[in-house]
Write a structure and sequence with these properties.
The structure holds two protein chains of two kinds.
Chain A: E1 10-12, E2 37-40, E3 45-46, H1 49-69, E4 72-74, H2 93-97, E5 103-111, E6 117-125, E7 130-139, H3 144-160, E8 169-176, E9 183-190, E10 197-198, E11 206-212, E12 218-224, E13 231-236, E14 242-244, E15 252-257, E16 263-270, E17 273-280, E18 285-288, E19 296-301, E20 307-312, E21 319-324, E22 331-332, E23 339-345, E24 352-358, E25 361-367, E26 375-380, E27 382-388, E28 394-400, E29 408-413, E30 420-422, E31 428-433
Parallel strand pairs in A: 2-4, 2-5, 3-5
Antiparallel strand pairs in A: 1-7, 5-6, 6-7, 8-9, 8-31, 9-10, 11-12, 12-13, 13-14, 15-16, 16-17, 17-18, 19-20, 20-21, 21-22, 23-24, 24-25, 25-26, 27-28, 28-29, 29-30
Chain B: H1 5-19, H2 50-57, E1 60-62, H3 72-87, E2 91-98, H4 105-125, E3 133-139, H5 150-156, E4 158-166
Parallel strand pairs in B: 2-3
Antiparallel strand pairs in B: 1-4, 2-4
Helix pairs in contact in B: 3-4
Classes of the chains: A mainly beta, B alpha+beta.
Chain lengths: 438, 168
């Protein structure tokens, strides 16, 4: 059995310095053109050689997180003038201003008497000579990567006012073998690609379209078998146990948890036609939400639980529709050329991400739930299946850059400018972003 | 959908025009025709076997881009499949619906289900007991041609009939 226990991290604010007054250095990530903020991240200090090495590793993870966000430009460590001696000593701000840093992240790693590590961090505004925030995390030493992601989340929040998304995981479909006989297994990894672990064996089924529960260490996905209709499953990440979500004659697919985690929305096929249903997990009670001769697929609920977006081809080509959560008031919201599929409601509620097919190209885009403000963020031979970072500022999706190239994972921010490939051990598709880890 | 056949074909043409560069302009794939029966007597093909179905009947029918309506060629192939199933009344089959790679995974699972059901319903309408024919969808997950070309896509848009059981 695969165990993916999430180790606890204790956070504490650390004292020192007055809370900043006056204008703070700040990144407005709602701006379309954000100039990356120059930030200095010297290696986190350690008391002995073990801690010094760990400090260097932690710093590497923090720098990579901040750099990938596109909001920060991490200044080369070789340019740094001051060598910090303790996280509790005020830095010489002039030494950091001279290398054009706006912000300094200073940190220290210590061994605690009970054998764990404590990672203490201070974020400094180099121009106002003020501390923007300070935090300390305690965790078992082998959990150091998560501590590093927590620090990066803290820096992100200190400077943007928004929750970070670095201490999160991605579940996705790991693909091997020839295209005609592909093995598709679920893999889970940290948001930055570290610690990939296979969750399913893929011996007699292909695992597709995994999605995280917003409230538990649980995934729902579709298992595609030979010679019988594919079915939706629940997978417990902590225990490795899985169960089929009801037994139906027709195929069940395109599952997605509701934001409160109590239900799964999905499509069910009967006599060739697919409609949207909802299953209450506690009672396994199934409710039909659409009843239309067109294909209704890919349901996704708004974070307030009041509305559901889905794809339907009832009007001819596939378009996105929005309805009330009881299935009433179905209304088309996309009217552009081509086809719109895989709507995914942002955890902030303000946007719906989608896949658009138009003139032989695939796009990832976003649109407001009322159908206004459509923006396309990416384009390639095949871009498909967006998933939101929990703060609703970044999307991950999968791409086949050219005909015949294998699928890989990519992320893009809402400006569309910060497009990055996500590191995976091989061909990968259908990413799903976890909620923040506990 | 209870749309009659000619209506669906008109819809198909309209969608083709909209899809333009999106897909093949061919509305039908190269349906596999029954081979010359003169070889049957000397071959080692077992009557009523999957090989018999593939070689002498045709186990695949093909669809246009984002379509699930049966072309005349597809109907002819299914008619032969129905005859085959009548001749071999102990055979059960699975009809799998498949799609090309030019759509999303989830939508293609739904589209594949429609293609499988279109073929299954046709066999049943030709007098085959519905309990002998199971429809499943593989979406775009089981292409028969791995290439990313118009020709491959037209082959991958299919409903494939496979013998799943022989006997009472």
């Amino acid at each position: 059995m695969i165990r993916q226990a999430v180790l606890a991290i204790l956070a504490a604010m650390i004292g020192f310095a007055a809370t900043p007054a006056g204008a703070r250095v700040r990144i407005d990530i709602t701006q379309a053109n954000v100039e990356p903020m120059p930030i200095a991240v010297p290696d986190f200090m350690g008391g002995d050689s073990d801690m010094t090495g760990l400090g260097r590793d932690i710093t590497g993870v923090i720098m990579a997180d901040l750099d990938r966000s596109g909001l920060f430009s991490v200044i080369d460590q070789r340019a740094y003038v001051e060598k910090l001696s303790s996280v509790d000593v005020r830095p010489r701000f002039a030494d950091w201003r001279i290398i054009n840093a706006q912000v300094l992240v200073a940190g220290e790693v210590r061994q605690t008497p009970d054998g764990r590590i404590e990672v203490a961090t201070r974020v400094w505004d180099v121009y106002s000579n003020e501390q923007l925030g300070a935090v300390s995390f305690k965790t078992p030493a082998d959990n150091w990567r998560r501590a590093a992601h927590k620090v990066a989340d803290f820096v992100y929040k200190s400077l943007t006012g928004e929750e970070g998304y670095f201490d999160t995981r991605i579940v996705y479909v790991y693909e091997t073998g020839p295209k005609e006989k592909r093995t598709k297994r679920l893999m889970i990894m940290d948001q930055d690609g570290a610690n990939p672990v296979l969750l399913t064996d893929g011996l007699n089924y292909q695992a597709l379209t995994p999605r995280f529960s917003p409230t538990q260490q649980q995934i729902t996905y579709m298992a595609l078998f030979d010679n019988k209709p594919g079915q939706v499953y629940l997978f417990n990440i902590e225990t490795g146990e899985q169960e089929q979500l009801g037994t139906f004659r027709g195929m069940t697919f395109a599952p997605r948890f509701t934001p409160d985690g109590t239900r799964v929305l999905m499509s069910m096929e009967r006599a060739g036609n697919s409609d949207v249903f909802q299953m209450e997990l506690a009672t396994r009670r199934l409710t039909r939400l659409t009843d239309n001769p067109g294909i209704d697929v890919s349901p996704t609920m708004s974070p307030d639980g009041r509305r559901i977006a889905f794809t339907s081809d009832r009007g001819g080509a596939e378009q996105i529709y929005v309805m009330n959560s009881d299935g009433s008031g179905q209304k088309r919201i996309t009217f552009g050329d081509g086809r719109y599929q895989t709507p995914v409601w942002s955890p902030r509620g303000d946007l719906i991400a989608f896949t658009r097919l138009y003139q032989g190209r695939f796009y990832i885009g976003v649109i407001r739930p009322d159908g206004s403000g459509e923006r396309l963020l990416t384009e390639s031979y095949l871009d498909e299946g967006p998933t939101w970072a929990p703060n609703g500022r970044v999307l991950m999706f999968f791409r086949e850059a050219s005909p015949g190239s294998g699928p890989s994972l990519w992320s893009v921010d809402l400006t569309g400018r910060n497009l990055r490939r996500v590191r995976t051990p091989g061909d990968s598709s259908d990413p799903a972003w976890s909620p923040p880890l506990p | 959908m209870n749309v009659n056949f000619s209506m669906k074909m008109i819809g198909a043409v309209g969608l083709m025009a909209l899809a333009a560069a999106c897909s093949s302009t061919k509305s039908t794939g190269p349906d596999v025709a029954a081979t010359d029966n003169s070889n049957t007597g000397v071959s080692s093909i077992v009557a009523g076997s999957q090989e018999d179905l593939e070689q002498n009947v045709g186990h695949r029918v093909f669809f246009g881009y984002d379509q699930y309506s049966l072309t005349p060629q597809a109907q002819a192939t299914l008619q032969r499949q129905a005859d085959f199933l009548k001749q071999h009344s102990n055979v059960r089959v699975v009809v799998s619906g498949n799609c090309d790679e030019r759509g999303t995974r989830e939508y293609n699972l739904a589209l594949g289900a429609r293609r499988a059901e279109a073929a299954r319903a046709y066999l049943v309408s030709m007098g085959i007991d519905s309990s002998r024919v199971t429809a499943v969808s593989y979406g775009k997950e089981r292409p028969i041609d791995p290439r990313s070309t118009e020709e491959a896509w037209s082959l991958n848009r299919n409903a494939t009939t496979t013998i799943s059981a022989v006997g009472a």
